[in-house]
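ok trying again, last paste got cut off:
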Amino acid sequence: MPKHLPIDEDFFPPFDGFPKGGLEFLRKLKKNNNRPWFQARREQYEELVRFPMQCLIAGLAQRMADVAPEFEFHPKKSIFRIYRDTRFSRNKAPYKTNIAASFELRGRKSPTETPGLYLGIEPGEIYVGGGLYMPTGPQLKLIRNAIATQPEEFLAVIRNGRFRREFGGIEGEKLVKAPLGYPRDHPMIEHLKHKQFYTGKILKDEACLKPGFPDTVSRILTDILPLVRWLAATLQS
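nice, full thing came through this time. structure:
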């Protein structure tokens, strides 16, 4: 990755692999998660972590433009801030130890989470996924109603051969008992128990070091799109 490039400009060179130094920086940050350490090395973070991620997202934007035109891949806006919200957490470490981005529907402004795509890079876990991670009560109600009343549409997504081979199924927490309003012998009961609706793949660190990583991410995101689109359509109804 070229050094000392102007990260505040809109030009991002082709992604040539996430630098090993970026992963090493995140490993060290995990051991030294405090403001003095980070502030003294902010330039390293910008050069070795944030800027490569911006180049990666710029590459994804090109690859996903025709595949998922309704989603925004923005090298600046899509990246999560490095700062943790510690207001309601016992863990007061000020910084996240990964670099991550979410890709949301264009023009969709909502106070609650909306279905989208996700990429996270952290030493020991590269995660590419999508769906709805923390649905609200009203969102869960809409999703469960769609599963119960139009099961064929939901099953067409999760029973698709490629979806099952790549992801296995829906991840996340599930209720132990049937959700309120549904009998325990409902034919879709196992799907109705889901409290989260997302899936994805975990990759080894080596995957992000390769210049072809944007192609790998694009393929995974493309395979997740049917689930994300089903969720988006369900919540719009």
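cool. The chain is about 45% helix and 10% strand. The beta strands are 99-103, 116-122, 125-132, 197-203.
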